[in-house]
Amino acid sequence: MLFDAYGDNAVYQWIGWIIVFLALIGFNEIARRTKIGGITCFLVIPGILTAYFIAIYAGAAAGAEWALNNPTYLYMNSWFHYAKLYAATAGCIGFLILKYHWGSLGKAEWFKCFPFVIVAINILIAVVSDFESAVRAFGTTWVSSEGVTLYGGWHNVFNGVAGILNIFVMTGWWGIYVSKKKQDMLWPDMTWVFILSYDIWNFCYTYNCLPTHSWYCGLALLLAPTVANFFWNKGGWIQNRAYTLSLWCMFCQVVPMFANDSIFAVQSVNNPDVNLVVSILALVANVAAVGYVIYRAKKLGVNPYTHEVFKGTRDYEQAMLREENAA
Fold it and tell me: Is 148 helix (H, G, I), strand (E, B) or coil?
């Protein structure tokens, strides 16, 4: 088994998973369907939370008990969680700018490469975290600042390399469009090839480096945007992913004990042999995905990053039917 999801709490653990999965889908719909929903979720709430985080750390520096014992201060204090929260939220804001054509940035052709840049940054944050474990404790364990025991080893190296390869599976960087009714920013060239290779790699990252959260952020959080893209928001996967990731990070930063230590909490088995198998799978998947991108680029005779290489495929054409200027 990958997770300790059995025993007396198993029913609650599965209920927790279903609640998180449905809540992420629901809040993603609220954020994407209206301008006020997006502004509230990714400008207003992050602004309030930033003031809250500053107050906590200012209080802790002054020795205030309420701050020193605050769950956010105790259990969500690593560089990774703050980097991920603000990088994901920056992506959401950039996507709002693109889909609503806000200001000169929203109308600038060069800004269409922003989704690639911000996704690459988010991937690299996780890659650095994987390599951090390998450097800190290769072949043994180390305890993070949040009190989580992590194994370091080849699994971190293999998955870190898989993450770097995953960046090169993103094609057609300038092929960014807006959907009808301006509900979604579309990236049609981001087809199942990238989505599958990303999901496998990112699940492996959470499994390696976030063993107390992987049940939720490695499964529910990854499946929510993928299901939305598959059934009703074709071409909008990257927006779905950014929105759900930002919302989950905000929730966990404020209520870490839900996933850490509650009746809903689920631990991974945290076994380096299992981690190694999952990491090899992630590496193989991304080597295959890069190979397929090269094949498609040669077949069409184009640069896969300046041109879209999945034109003519079912995923691409279905996404383009949703484009605001589609025939």
Answer: coil
Examine the pLDDT at 326 and tell me if it is beyond 80: no
What residues pair up with 141 in beta bridges, in sequence order? 151
Whether the per-residue pLDDT at 104 is higher than 80: the answer is yes
Determine the Cα–Cα distance for residues 128 and 217; give it in Å rounded to an integer. Answer: 18
Please state which of the ranges 1-10, 33-42, 81-90, 103-112 shows the lowest mean pLDDT: 1-10
CA distance 89 to 125: 14
Query: What separation in angstroms does the CA of 156 have from each of 159, 267, 275, 301?
Result: 5, 19, 8, 35
Dist. CA 127–CA 277, nearest whole Å = 18
* Cα distance between residue 153 and residue 158, in whole Å: 9
Taking alpha carbons only, the member of 151, 190, 185, 173 closest to residue 279 is 151
The C-alpha atoms of residue 88 and residue 252 are separated, in whole angstroms, by 14
For the beta carbon of residue 305, count every other beta carbon within 10 angstroms. 18
> Which 3-state string (H, E, C) describes 198-232?
HHHHHHHHHHHHCCCCHHHHHHHHHHHHHHHHHHC
17: left (phi over 0), alpha (psi -120 to 50) or beta: alpha
DSSP letter string over 262-314? STT---B---HHHHHHHHHHHHHHHHHHHHHHHHHHHHHTS-TTTS-S-TTSH
Contact 264, 212 (CB under 8 A): no
Residue 7: pLDDT band by 50, 70, 90 thresholds?
confident
| Rg of the chain, C-alpha, whole Å | 20
pLDDT tens for 125-183 read: 999 999 999 999 999 999 998 899 999 999 999 999 999 999 999 999 999 999 998 99
Question: According to the model, what pLDDT value does residue 151 have?
Answer: 95
Q: What span, in angstroms and rounded, lies between the C-alpha atoms of 25 and 133?
A: 32
CA torsion through residues 234, 238, 243, 249, sign = positive
For residue 198, give Cα distances in angstroms to 169, 225, 306: 9, 12, 21
Distances from the Cα of 308 to the Cα of 172, 292, 314, angstroms: 4, 13, 14
